[in-house]
Amino acid sequence: MYNLLVGGAAGQGVDTAVNTLEALLKAAGCGVFTVRDLMSRIRGGHNFSLVRFGEETPRSHSERLDGIIALNEETIALHRDKLKPEGFILCDESVKTDDSRAIPLKLQGIAKLLGSGRAAGSVAVGAALRLFSTPIDGARRVFEKSLKPGLVEMNVKALEAGYRAVEPRFERVGGSHAGEMILTGNKALALGALAAGLQFYAAYPMSPSTSILEYLASVSLKMGIAVEQAEDEIAAVNMAIGASFTGARAMTGTSGGGFSLKVEALGLSGMAEVPLVLVDVQRPGPVTGLPTRTEQSDLKFMISASQGEFPRMVIALRHHEDAYRQTIRAFNLAEKYQIPVILLSDQYLADGTATMPVPDPAKAEIYAPEDVPAEGGYARYRFTESGISPRKFPGTRDGFVSADSDEHDEYGKIIEDSETRIRMMNKRMGKLELLKRELEEPQLLGDERPEVLLIGWGSLYGPLEEAVRLLNAEGKARYGALVFGDVWPLPDRLLREKAAGARALIHVEQNYTGQLAQLIREQTGIRTDAGILKYDGRQLSGEEIVRRLREEGY
Protein backbone atom coordinates (compact mmCIF):
# COMPACT_ATOMS: atom_id res chain seq x y z
CA MET A 1 0.00 0.00 0.00
CA TYR A 2 1.42 3.40 -1.02
CA ASN A 3 0.57 6.92 0.14
CA LEU A 4 1.05 10.03 -1.96
CA LEU A 5 0.27 13.64 -1.03
CA VAL A 6 -0.49 16.29 -3.65
CA GLY A 7 -0.45 19.83 -2.28
CA GLY A 8 -0.50 23.47 -3.33
CA ALA A 9 -2.51 26.65 -3.19
CA ALA A 10 -6.16 26.83 -4.25
CA GLY A 11 -6.15 27.53 -7.99
CA GLN A 12 -2.88 25.66 -8.70
CA GLY A 13 -4.64 22.58 -10.04
CA VAL A 14 -4.32 20.21 -7.07
CA ASP A 15 -7.73 18.63 -7.65
CA THR A 16 -7.16 18.25 -11.40
CA ALA A 17 -3.86 16.45 -10.79
CA VAL A 18 -5.46 14.20 -8.16
CA ASN A 19 -8.40 13.30 -10.42
CA THR A 20 -5.97 12.27 -13.17
CA LEU A 21 -3.83 10.32 -10.75
CA GLU A 22 -6.81 8.44 -9.32
CA ALA A 23 -8.14 7.51 -12.74
CA LEU A 24 -4.78 6.20 -13.97
CA LEU A 25 -4.15 4.23 -10.79
CA LYS A 26 -7.57 2.62 -11.12
CA ALA A 27 -6.93 1.89 -14.80
CA ALA A 28 -3.77 0.06 -13.68
CA GLY A 29 -5.92 -2.10 -11.37
CA CYS A 30 -5.21 -0.38 -8.06
CA GLY A 31 -7.72 0.13 -5.31
CA VAL A 32 -7.74 3.84 -4.48
CA PHE A 33 -8.84 5.98 -1.53
CA THR A 34 -8.40 9.76 -1.48
CA VAL A 35 -9.13 12.25 1.26
CA ARG A 36 -9.26 15.98 0.50
CA ASP A 37 -8.22 18.76 2.86
CA LEU A 38 -9.57 22.03 1.49
CA MET A 39 -9.55 25.60 2.70
CA SER A 40 -12.71 27.67 2.36
CA ARG A 41 -11.38 29.97 -0.34
CA ILE A 42 -11.09 30.13 -4.12
CA ARG A 43 -7.47 31.26 -4.38
CA GLY A 44 -4.43 30.91 -2.14
CA GLY A 45 -4.16 29.09 1.16
CA HIS A 46 -3.04 25.48 1.32
CA ASN A 47 -5.00 22.57 -0.12
CA PHE A 48 -3.85 18.99 -0.28
CA SER A 49 -5.11 15.51 -1.03
CA LEU A 50 -3.85 12.20 0.32
CA VAL A 51 -4.04 9.42 -2.27
CA ARG A 52 -3.69 5.88 -0.96
CA PHE A 53 -3.54 2.93 -3.33
CA GLY A 54 -2.70 -0.74 -3.47
CA GLU A 55 -3.96 -4.21 -4.27
CA GLU A 56 -7.01 -3.76 -2.02
CA THR A 57 -9.17 -0.65 -1.68
CA PRO A 58 -8.14 1.22 1.48
CA ARG A 59 -10.87 2.59 3.74
CA SER A 60 -8.83 5.42 5.26
CA HIS A 61 -5.80 7.65 4.85
CA SER A 62 -2.35 7.19 6.33
CA GLU A 63 0.08 9.61 7.96
CA ARG A 64 3.18 7.89 6.55
CA LEU A 65 3.94 9.23 3.09
CA ASP A 66 5.86 7.53 0.29
CA GLY A 67 5.80 10.61 -1.90
CA ILE A 68 4.84 14.26 -2.17
CA ILE A 69 3.91 16.24 -5.26
CA ALA A 70 4.60 19.80 -4.11
CA LEU A 71 3.19 22.54 -6.30
CA ASN A 72 4.63 25.14 -3.93
CA GLU A 73 7.21 25.48 -1.13
CA GLU A 74 4.58 25.54 1.61
CA THR A 75 3.59 21.95 0.82
CA ILE A 76 7.13 20.76 1.50
CA ALA A 77 7.42 22.74 4.73
CA LEU A 78 4.10 21.44 6.09
CA HIS A 79 4.38 17.76 5.16
CA ARG A 80 8.04 16.73 4.87
CA ASP A 81 8.10 15.43 8.46
CA LYS A 82 5.62 12.69 7.51
CA LEU A 83 7.63 11.56 4.49
CA LYS A 84 9.46 8.24 4.84
CA PRO A 85 13.30 8.35 4.57
CA GLU A 86 13.13 6.56 1.20
CA GLY A 87 10.29 8.77 -0.04
CA PHE A 88 10.42 11.49 -2.68
CA ILE A 89 9.34 15.08 -3.20
CA LEU A 90 8.43 16.00 -6.78
CA CYS A 91 8.56 19.73 -7.38
CA ASP A 92 9.36 22.35 -9.96
CA GLU A 93 13.00 23.39 -10.16
CA SER A 94 11.95 26.89 -9.05
CA VAL A 95 10.78 25.57 -5.66
CA LYS A 96 13.49 26.12 -3.06
CA THR A 97 14.19 23.21 -0.69
CA ASP A 98 17.23 21.68 0.97
CA ASP A 99 15.56 18.29 1.41
CA SER A 100 17.74 15.57 -0.09
CA ARG A 101 14.63 13.59 -1.07
CA ALA A 102 13.54 16.31 -3.51
CA ILE A 103 13.44 15.57 -7.23
CA PRO A 104 13.35 18.98 -8.91
CA LEU A 105 12.01 18.82 -12.46
CA LYS A 106 11.25 21.38 -15.18
CA LEU A 107 7.51 20.97 -14.59
CA GLN A 108 6.61 24.49 -15.72
CA GLY A 109 9.25 24.53 -18.46
CA ILE A 110 8.07 21.28 -20.05
CA ALA A 111 4.44 22.36 -19.81
CA LYS A 112 5.10 25.74 -21.42
CA LEU A 113 6.99 24.11 -24.28
CA LEU A 114 3.91 21.98 -24.90
CA GLY A 115 1.62 25.00 -24.97
CA SER A 116 0.49 25.87 -21.43
CA GLY A 117 2.01 26.09 -17.97
CA ARG A 118 -1.26 24.69 -16.60
CA ALA A 119 -0.18 21.25 -17.83
CA ALA A 120 2.58 21.20 -15.18
CA GLY A 121 0.35 19.04 -12.97
CA SER A 122 0.19 16.40 -15.72
CA VAL A 123 3.98 16.37 -15.94
CA ALA A 124 4.18 15.79 -12.17
CA VAL A 125 1.55 13.03 -12.27
CA GLY A 126 3.45 11.25 -15.04
CA ALA A 127 6.66 11.37 -13.02
CA ALA A 128 4.92 10.09 -9.88
CA LEU A 129 3.38 7.16 -11.73
CA ARG A 130 6.79 6.26 -13.14
CA LEU A 131 8.33 6.31 -9.65
CA PHE A 132 5.65 3.86 -8.53
CA SER A 133 6.23 1.69 -11.66
CA THR A 134 2.63 2.24 -12.75
CA PRO A 135 1.78 2.09 -16.48
CA ILE A 136 0.03 5.02 -18.16
CA ASP A 137 -1.56 3.15 -21.07
CA GLY A 138 -5.00 4.60 -20.36
CA ALA A 139 -3.89 8.24 -20.24
CA ARG A 140 -5.60 9.35 -23.42
CA ARG A 141 -8.95 7.83 -22.40
CA VAL A 142 -8.70 9.50 -19.00
CA PHE A 143 -8.04 12.93 -20.48
CA GLU A 144 -10.74 12.52 -23.12
CA LYS A 145 -13.29 12.05 -20.31
CA SER A 146 -12.14 15.00 -18.23
CA LEU A 147 -10.80 17.68 -20.61
CA LYS A 148 -11.95 19.68 -23.58
CA PRO A 149 -10.85 18.08 -26.89
CA GLY A 150 -8.27 20.79 -27.58
CA LEU A 151 -6.42 20.10 -24.34
CA VAL A 152 -6.18 16.30 -24.54
CA GLU A 153 -3.09 15.96 -26.74
CA MET A 154 -1.09 18.53 -24.79
CA ASN A 155 -1.79 16.84 -21.47
CA VAL A 156 -1.03 13.37 -22.83
CA LYS A 157 2.37 14.64 -24.01
CA ALA A 158 2.95 16.38 -20.66
CA LEU A 159 2.20 13.17 -18.79
CA GLU A 160 4.51 11.17 -21.05
CA ALA A 161 7.28 13.76 -20.64
CA GLY A 162 7.05 13.50 -16.87
CA TYR A 163 7.05 9.71 -17.13
CA ARG A 164 10.33 9.80 -19.09
CA ALA A 165 11.97 12.27 -16.70
CA VAL A 166 12.51 9.82 -13.81
CA GLU A 167 13.32 6.16 -13.18
CA PRO A 168 11.18 3.67 -11.21
CA ARG A 169 11.79 3.61 -7.46
CA PHE A 170 9.04 1.43 -5.97
CA GLU A 171 7.69 -1.98 -6.92
CA ARG A 172 4.45 -1.89 -8.82
CA VAL A 173 1.22 -2.65 -6.98
CA GLY A 174 -1.99 -3.48 -8.71
CA GLY A 175 -5.17 -5.44 -8.35
CA SER A 176 -8.46 -6.21 -10.04
CA HIS A 177 -10.10 -2.79 -9.70
CA ALA A 178 -9.77 -1.52 -13.27
CA GLY A 179 -13.42 -2.28 -14.02
CA GLU A 180 -14.73 -0.62 -10.87
CA MET A 181 -15.97 2.91 -10.46
CA ILE A 182 -14.27 5.66 -8.50
CA LEU A 183 -16.60 8.07 -6.78
CA THR A 184 -17.12 10.30 -3.77
CA GLY A 185 -19.17 9.31 -0.76
CA ASN A 186 -21.81 11.86 -1.75
CA LYS A 187 -22.11 10.32 -5.20
CA ALA A 188 -22.38 6.82 -3.71
CA LEU A 189 -25.24 8.11 -1.57
CA ALA A 190 -26.92 9.74 -4.57
CA LEU A 191 -26.64 6.52 -6.58
CA GLY A 192 -28.22 4.64 -3.69
CA ALA A 193 -31.11 7.11 -3.69
CA LEU A 194 -31.63 6.60 -7.44
CA ALA A 195 -31.54 2.82 -7.01
CA ALA A 196 -34.14 3.18 -4.24
CA GLY A 197 -36.52 4.92 -6.64
CA LEU A 198 -35.89 8.57 -5.72
CA GLN A 199 -38.36 10.82 -7.52
CA PHE A 200 -37.87 14.21 -5.85
CA TYR A 201 -34.84 15.91 -4.27
CA ALA A 202 -34.83 19.41 -2.83
CA ALA A 203 -31.91 21.19 -1.20
CA TYR A 204 -30.25 24.51 -0.62
CA PRO A 205 -26.49 24.46 -1.36
CA MET A 206 -24.40 23.97 1.78
CA SER A 207 -20.94 22.43 1.98
CA PRO A 208 -20.19 19.59 2.20
CA SER A 209 -23.59 18.32 1.01
CA THR A 210 -23.81 20.38 -2.19
CA SER A 211 -22.36 17.77 -4.54
CA ILE A 212 -25.41 15.54 -3.89
CA LEU A 213 -27.60 18.30 -5.32
CA GLU A 214 -25.19 18.92 -8.20
CA TYR A 215 -24.99 15.27 -9.21
CA LEU A 216 -28.71 14.58 -8.99
CA ALA A 217 -29.42 17.75 -10.99
CA SER A 218 -26.96 16.63 -13.67
CA VAL A 219 -28.82 13.33 -14.19
CA SER A 220 -32.36 14.52 -13.47
CA LEU A 221 -33.54 14.55 -17.10
CA LYS A 222 -31.95 11.22 -17.87
CA MET A 223 -33.37 9.59 -14.73
CA GLY A 224 -36.77 11.28 -14.91
CA ILE A 225 -36.62 12.82 -11.44
CA ALA A 226 -37.39 16.30 -10.16
CA VAL A 227 -34.53 18.20 -8.51
CA GLU A 228 -35.19 21.58 -6.94
CA GLN A 229 -32.63 24.07 -5.64
CA ALA A 230 -34.86 25.75 -3.08
CA GLU A 231 -34.65 29.34 -1.88
CA ASP A 232 -33.70 28.18 1.63
CA GLU A 233 -33.46 25.12 3.87
CA ILE A 234 -36.99 25.46 5.25
CA ALA A 235 -38.46 25.48 1.76
CA ALA A 236 -36.34 22.48 0.74
CA VAL A 237 -37.54 20.18 3.52
CA ASN A 238 -41.16 21.24 3.18
CA MET A 239 -41.02 20.65 -0.58
CA ALA A 240 -39.71 17.13 0.11
CA ILE A 241 -42.47 16.49 2.65
CA GLY A 242 -45.07 17.74 0.18
CA ALA A 243 -43.72 15.51 -2.57
CA SER A 244 -43.73 12.50 -0.24
CA PHE A 245 -47.32 13.27 0.87
CA THR A 246 -48.40 12.95 -2.76
CA GLY A 247 -46.66 9.58 -3.10
CA ALA A 248 -43.21 10.45 -4.46
CA ARG A 249 -40.07 9.02 -2.90
CA ALA A 250 -38.40 12.18 -1.62
CA MET A 251 -35.15 13.24 0.00
CA THR A 252 -33.51 16.45 1.19
CA GLY A 253 -29.88 17.05 2.14
CA THR A 254 -27.81 19.62 3.98
CA SER A 255 -25.17 20.09 6.68
CA GLY A 256 -25.72 20.78 10.37
CA GLY A 257 -26.43 24.51 10.04
CA GLY A 258 -29.05 23.86 7.37
CA PHE A 259 -30.52 21.01 9.37
CA SER A 260 -31.10 23.47 12.22
CA LEU A 261 -33.58 25.26 9.94
CA LYS A 262 -35.32 22.00 9.02
CA VAL A 263 -36.08 21.00 12.58
CA GLU A 264 -39.75 22.04 12.84
CA ALA A 265 -40.50 20.37 9.50
CA LEU A 266 -38.83 17.20 10.79
CA GLY A 267 -41.51 17.19 13.47
CA LEU A 268 -44.17 17.64 10.80
CA SER A 269 -42.92 14.50 9.06
CA GLY A 270 -43.18 12.64 12.38
CA MET A 271 -46.63 13.95 13.34
CA ALA A 272 -48.16 13.60 9.87
CA GLU A 273 -46.46 10.22 9.37
CA VAL A 274 -45.03 11.26 6.02
CA PRO A 275 -42.00 9.19 4.94
CA LEU A 276 -38.88 11.31 4.48
CA VAL A 277 -35.16 10.70 4.00
CA LEU A 278 -32.93 13.50 5.29
CA VAL A 279 -29.16 13.68 4.79
CA ASP A 280 -26.88 15.53 7.21
CA VAL A 281 -23.30 15.77 5.95
CA GLN A 282 -21.52 16.88 9.10
CA ARG A 283 -18.93 19.62 9.39
CA PRO A 284 -17.55 21.35 12.50
CA GLY A 285 -19.90 23.82 14.13
CA PRO A 286 -21.52 25.64 15.69
CA VAL A 287 -22.87 28.15 13.16
CA THR A 288 -20.54 28.36 10.12
CA GLY A 289 -17.73 26.60 11.97
CA LEU A 290 -15.22 25.09 9.54
CA PRO A 291 -17.21 24.71 6.29
CA THR A 292 -14.73 22.45 4.48
CA ARG A 293 -13.61 20.24 7.37
CA THR A 294 -14.96 17.11 9.04
CA GLU A 295 -16.50 16.24 12.41
CA GLN A 296 -19.00 13.91 14.11
CA SER A 297 -20.74 16.40 16.36
CA ASP A 298 -24.37 16.18 15.19
CA LEU A 299 -25.31 12.76 16.57
CA LYS A 300 -27.27 13.84 19.65
CA PHE A 301 -28.84 16.69 17.66
CA MET A 302 -30.20 14.24 15.06
CA ILE A 303 -31.67 12.00 17.76
CA SER A 304 -33.46 14.81 19.62
CA ALA A 305 -34.14 17.45 16.94
CA SER A 306 -37.64 19.01 16.98
CA GLN A 307 -39.93 19.43 19.95
CA GLY A 308 -42.08 16.61 21.22
CA GLU A 309 -41.60 12.89 20.71
CA PHE A 310 -41.98 10.86 17.54
CA PRO A 311 -40.27 7.83 16.01
CA ARG A 312 -37.28 8.32 13.75
CA MET A 313 -34.23 6.39 12.66
CA VAL A 314 -30.64 7.62 12.42
CA ILE A 315 -28.10 5.76 10.30
CA ALA A 316 -24.39 6.69 10.20
CA LEU A 317 -22.66 5.90 6.91
CA ARG A 318 -19.35 4.06 7.30
CA HIS A 319 -17.79 3.92 3.82
CA HIS A 320 -18.69 4.27 0.16
CA GLU A 321 -20.36 0.89 -0.38
CA ASP A 322 -22.19 1.35 2.91
CA ALA A 323 -23.43 4.78 1.76
CA TYR A 324 -24.98 3.21 -1.34
CA ARG A 325 -26.58 0.30 0.52
CA GLN A 326 -27.81 2.23 3.54
CA THR A 327 -29.44 4.92 1.42
CA ILE A 328 -31.57 2.27 -0.26
CA ARG A 329 -32.41 0.86 3.15
CA ALA A 330 -33.29 4.33 4.49
CA PHE A 331 -35.93 4.80 1.78
CA ASN A 332 -37.40 1.38 2.49
CA LEU A 333 -37.59 1.98 6.24
CA ALA A 334 -39.06 5.46 5.79
CA GLU A 335 -41.78 4.08 3.50
CA LYS A 336 -42.49 0.99 5.57
CA TYR A 337 -42.83 2.77 8.93
CA GLN A 338 -43.94 6.18 7.59
CA ILE A 339 -41.23 7.99 9.55
CA PRO A 340 -38.28 10.31 8.89
CA VAL A 341 -34.97 8.49 8.45
CA ILE A 342 -31.79 10.52 8.86
CA LEU A 343 -28.55 9.59 7.09
CA LEU A 344 -25.46 10.89 8.91
CA SER A 345 -22.38 11.40 6.76
CA ASP A 346 -19.45 13.82 7.12
CA GLN A 347 -16.97 15.75 5.00
CA TYR A 348 -14.33 12.99 5.23
CA LEU A 349 -16.63 10.46 3.58
CA ALA A 350 -18.63 12.90 1.44
CA ASP A 351 -15.68 14.50 -0.38
CA GLY A 352 -13.37 11.49 -0.21
CA THR A 353 -13.16 9.22 -3.25
CA ALA A 354 -12.71 5.47 -3.42
CA THR A 355 -12.90 2.61 -5.87
CA MET A 356 -16.01 0.50 -5.52
CA PRO A 357 -17.58 -2.35 -7.51
CA VAL A 358 -20.25 -1.10 -9.92
CA PRO A 359 -23.56 -1.78 -8.17
CA ASP A 360 -26.51 -3.29 -9.98
CA PRO A 361 -29.58 -1.18 -9.19
CA ALA A 362 -31.79 -3.98 -10.49
CA LYS A 363 -30.76 -6.03 -7.45
CA ALA A 364 -31.88 -3.38 -4.98
CA GLU A 365 -34.74 -4.64 -2.83
CA ILE A 366 -37.48 -2.00 -2.83
CA TYR A 367 -40.23 -1.99 -0.23
CA ALA A 368 -43.69 -2.19 -1.76
CA PRO A 369 -46.58 -1.19 0.56
CA GLU A 370 -49.62 -3.40 0.82
CA ASP A 371 -52.79 -2.39 -0.99
CA VAL A 372 -55.25 -0.38 1.08
CA PRO A 373 -58.50 -2.30 1.62
CA ALA A 374 -61.43 -0.62 -0.14
CA GLU A 375 -64.10 -1.72 2.32
CA GLY A 376 -64.91 0.01 5.59
CA GLY A 377 -64.06 3.56 4.57
CA TYR A 378 -60.61 5.08 4.53
CA ALA A 379 -58.96 6.66 7.58
CA ARG A 380 -55.44 7.95 7.03
CA TYR A 381 -54.43 7.40 10.65
CA ARG A 382 -56.35 4.20 11.29
CA PHE A 383 -55.48 2.60 14.63
CA THR A 384 -53.80 -0.71 13.83
CA GLU A 385 -52.05 -3.38 15.86
CA SER A 386 -48.67 -2.44 14.34
CA GLY A 387 -49.21 1.32 14.53
CA ILE A 388 -48.71 1.58 10.77
CA SER A 389 -51.82 2.92 9.05
CA PRO A 390 -52.85 2.15 5.45
CA ARG A 391 -51.57 4.94 3.23
CA LYS A 392 -53.35 6.52 0.26
CA PHE A 393 -52.35 9.58 -1.69
CA PRO A 394 -54.27 12.73 -2.60
CA GLY A 395 -56.25 12.24 -5.77
CA THR A 396 -57.02 8.57 -5.13
CA ARG A 397 -60.60 7.44 -5.28
CA ASP A 398 -62.68 6.15 -2.34
CA GLY A 399 -61.27 8.18 0.49
CA PHE A 400 -60.27 11.63 1.64
CA VAL A 401 -56.53 11.95 2.40
CA SER A 402 -55.58 14.51 5.02
CA ALA A 403 -52.57 15.46 7.10
CA ASP A 404 -52.13 17.91 9.95
CA SER A 405 -49.46 19.30 12.23
CA ASP A 406 -52.04 19.41 15.04
CA GLU A 407 -52.88 16.29 16.97
CA HIS A 408 -55.68 14.50 15.12
CA ASP A 409 -58.00 11.53 15.04
CA GLU A 410 -57.98 8.58 12.65
CA TYR A 411 -59.38 10.74 9.85
CA GLY A 412 -56.87 13.56 10.28
CA LYS A 413 -59.30 15.91 12.01
CA ILE A 414 -57.95 18.13 14.79
CA ILE A 415 -58.70 16.91 18.33
CA GLU A 416 -57.97 18.08 21.86
CA ASP A 417 -59.28 15.25 24.02
CA SER A 418 -56.85 13.27 26.17
CA GLU A 419 -57.99 9.80 25.14
CA THR A 420 -57.35 10.29 21.43
CA ARG A 421 -54.05 12.04 22.13
CA ILE A 422 -52.83 9.10 24.17
CA ARG A 423 -53.94 6.55 21.58
CA MET A 424 -52.25 8.47 18.76
CA MET A 425 -48.99 8.88 20.68
CA ASN A 426 -49.00 5.16 21.53
CA LYS A 427 -49.71 4.33 17.89
CA ARG A 428 -46.82 6.43 16.56
CA MET A 429 -44.25 5.54 19.20
CA GLY A 430 -45.18 1.87 19.01
CA LYS A 431 -43.51 1.73 15.60
CA LEU A 432 -40.15 1.90 17.38
CA GLU A 433 -40.63 -1.60 18.80
CA LEU A 434 -41.13 -2.97 15.30
CA LEU A 435 -38.23 -0.89 13.96
CA LYS A 436 -35.91 -2.35 16.60
CA ARG A 437 -36.41 -5.78 15.05
CA GLU A 438 -34.78 -4.49 11.86
CA LEU A 439 -31.73 -2.89 13.48
CA GLU A 440 -28.31 -3.93 12.25
CA GLU A 441 -25.72 -4.67 14.90
CA PRO A 442 -22.42 -2.76 14.71
CA GLN A 443 -19.68 -4.37 12.64
CA LEU A 444 -16.95 -6.13 14.61
CA LEU A 445 -13.42 -5.54 13.34
CA GLY A 446 -10.30 -7.34 14.55
CA ASP A 447 -10.27 -10.07 17.16
CA GLU A 448 -13.50 -11.94 17.88
CA ARG A 449 -12.71 -11.96 21.64
CA PRO A 450 -11.12 -8.57 22.21
CA GLU A 451 -9.40 -7.70 25.47
CA VAL A 452 -9.43 -4.05 24.46
CA LEU A 453 -12.61 -3.02 22.64
CA LEU A 454 -12.71 0.21 20.65
CA ILE A 455 -16.13 1.72 19.93
CA GLY A 456 -16.83 4.14 17.09
CA TRP A 457 -19.36 5.04 14.42
CA GLY A 458 -19.73 6.24 10.85
CA SER A 459 -16.66 7.16 8.82
CA LEU A 460 -14.27 6.09 11.58
CA TYR A 461 -14.78 2.59 10.17
CA GLY A 462 -11.63 2.82 8.01
CA PRO A 463 -9.30 4.32 10.65
CA LEU A 464 -10.53 1.81 13.27
CA GLU A 465 -10.08 -1.07 10.84
CA GLU A 466 -6.47 0.01 10.30
CA ALA A 467 -5.86 0.63 14.01
CA VAL A 468 -6.92 -2.84 15.14
CA ARG A 469 -4.89 -4.41 12.32
CA LEU A 470 -1.75 -2.55 13.45
CA LEU A 471 -2.42 -3.30 17.12
CA ASN A 472 -3.05 -7.01 16.62
CA ALA A 473 0.09 -7.31 14.49
CA GLU A 474 2.09 -6.23 17.56
CA GLY A 475 0.70 -9.21 19.49
CA LYS A 476 0.65 -7.48 22.89
CA ALA A 477 -3.08 -8.01 23.43
CA ARG A 478 -6.27 -8.84 21.53
CA TYR A 479 -7.91 -5.76 20.02
CA GLY A 480 -11.28 -5.33 18.37
CA ALA A 481 -13.57 -2.52 17.32
CA LEU A 482 -17.33 -2.17 17.09
CA VAL A 483 -18.34 0.38 14.44
CA PHE A 484 -21.98 1.46 14.57
CA GLY A 485 -24.02 2.21 11.46
CA ASP A 486 -27.47 2.13 13.04
CA VAL A 487 -27.22 4.56 15.94
CA TRP A 488 -30.88 5.30 16.75
CA PRO A 489 -32.58 3.25 17.93
CA LEU A 490 -29.33 1.85 19.36
CA PRO A 491 -28.67 -1.85 18.74
CA ASP A 492 -26.99 -3.28 21.85
CA ARG A 493 -26.82 -7.09 21.67
CA LEU A 494 -23.30 -7.33 20.24
CA LEU A 495 -22.10 -4.41 22.35
CA ARG A 496 -23.21 -6.10 25.58
CA GLU A 497 -21.69 -9.41 24.50
CA LYS A 498 -18.26 -8.03 23.55
CA ALA A 499 -18.09 -5.48 26.37
CA ALA A 500 -18.64 -8.23 28.93
CA GLY A 501 -15.47 -10.02 27.83
CA ALA A 502 -13.21 -6.99 27.44
CA ARG A 503 -10.98 -5.53 30.17
CA ALA A 504 -11.13 -2.05 28.62
CA LEU A 505 -13.64 -0.12 26.50
CA ILE A 506 -12.37 2.90 24.57
CA HIS A 507 -14.68 5.21 22.60
CA VAL A 508 -13.17 6.83 19.50
CA GLU A 509 -15.04 9.84 18.10
CA GLN A 510 -14.63 13.02 16.08
CA ASN A 511 -16.25 15.32 18.65
CA TYR A 512 -15.48 16.96 22.01
CA THR A 513 -18.00 15.31 24.32
CA GLY A 514 -17.99 11.66 23.23
CA GLN A 515 -21.57 11.65 22.00
CA LEU A 516 -21.80 7.95 21.16
CA ALA A 517 -20.33 7.03 24.55
CA GLN A 518 -22.96 9.21 26.22
CA LEU A 519 -25.71 7.54 24.19
CA ILE A 520 -24.44 4.06 25.06
CA ARG A 521 -24.27 4.92 28.77
CA GLU A 522 -27.80 6.36 28.63
CA GLN A 523 -29.31 3.39 26.79
CA THR A 524 -27.36 0.46 28.29
CA GLY A 525 -25.58 1.62 31.45
CA ILE A 526 -22.25 0.57 29.89
CA ARG A 527 -19.45 3.02 30.63
CA THR A 528 -16.25 3.36 28.63
CA ASP A 529 -12.89 3.47 30.40
CA ALA A 530 -11.31 6.15 28.21
CA GLY A 531 -11.87 8.12 25.04
CA ILE A 532 -9.91 9.17 22.00
CA LEU A 533 -11.49 12.36 20.69
CA LYS A 534 -10.55 14.71 17.87
CA TYR A 535 -12.32 17.91 16.88
CA ASP A 536 -9.83 20.05 14.91
CA GLY A 537 -11.59 19.40 11.60
CA ARG A 538 -9.25 16.59 10.50
CA GLN A 539 -9.99 12.87 10.60
CA LEU A 540 -8.22 10.49 12.95
CA SER A 541 -5.94 8.06 11.14
CA GLY A 542 -5.30 4.48 12.18
CA GLU A 543 -1.74 5.41 13.19
CA GLU A 544 -2.97 8.28 15.36
CA ILE A 545 -5.48 6.03 17.13
CA VAL A 546 -2.69 3.55 17.90
CA ARG A 547 -0.35 6.29 19.12
CA ARG A 548 -2.96 7.81 21.41
CA LEU A 549 -3.96 4.41 22.78
CA ARG A 550 -0.34 3.84 23.73
CA GLU A 551 -0.23 7.24 25.43
CA GLU A 552 -3.28 6.23 27.47
CA GLY A 553 -1.62 2.98 28.49
CA TYR A 554 -3.67 0.59 26.37
Keywords summarizing the entry:
seven-stranded mixed beta sheet; Rossmann fold; globular; eight-stranded mixed beta sheet; alpha/beta; 4 domains; Pyruvate-ferredoxin Oxidoreductase, domain 3; about 550 residues
Structure, explained:
With 554 residues, the protein is of the alpha/beta class. It has four domains: 2-164, Pyruvate-ferredoxin Oxidoreductase, domain 3 (3-Layer(aba) Sandwich), CATH 3.40.920; 182-363, Thiamin diphosphate (ThDP)-binding fold, Pyr/PP domains (Rossmann fold); 373-438, no CATH class; 443-551, Rossmann fold, CATH 3.40.50. Helix content is 38%, strand content 21%. It is built from 19 helices and 20 strands. The strands form three sheets. Strands 6-5-4-1-3-2-14-7 form an eight-stranded mixed beta sheet, sandwiched between helices. Strand 12, helix 12 and strand 13 (340-346) form a beta-alpha-beta unit. Helix 16 crosses helix 19. The longest helix is centred in the middle third of the chain and has 18 residues, at 320-337. It is globular. The mean pLDDT is 94.
Strand order of the largest sheet: 6-5-4-1-3-2-14-7
Q: What is the tally of beta strands? A: 20
The largest sheet is: 8 strands, mixed
Structural class label: alpha/beta
CATH architecture descriptor name of the largest domain: 3-Layer(aba) Sandwich
In total, the number of domains comes to 4
Q: What overall geometry do the principal axes of the alpha carbons give?
A: globular
Q: How large is the count of helical segments?
A: 19
CATH superfamily annotation of the largest domain: Thiamin diphosphate (ThDP)-binding fold, Pyr/PP domains
Determine the mean pLDDT.
94
What's the Cα radius of gyration? 25 Å
Helix % is: 25-40%
Tell me the name of the CATH class of the largest domain. Answer: Alpha Beta
Residue stretches low in confidence (pLDDT < 50, at least 5 long) are: none
Strand content: 15-25%
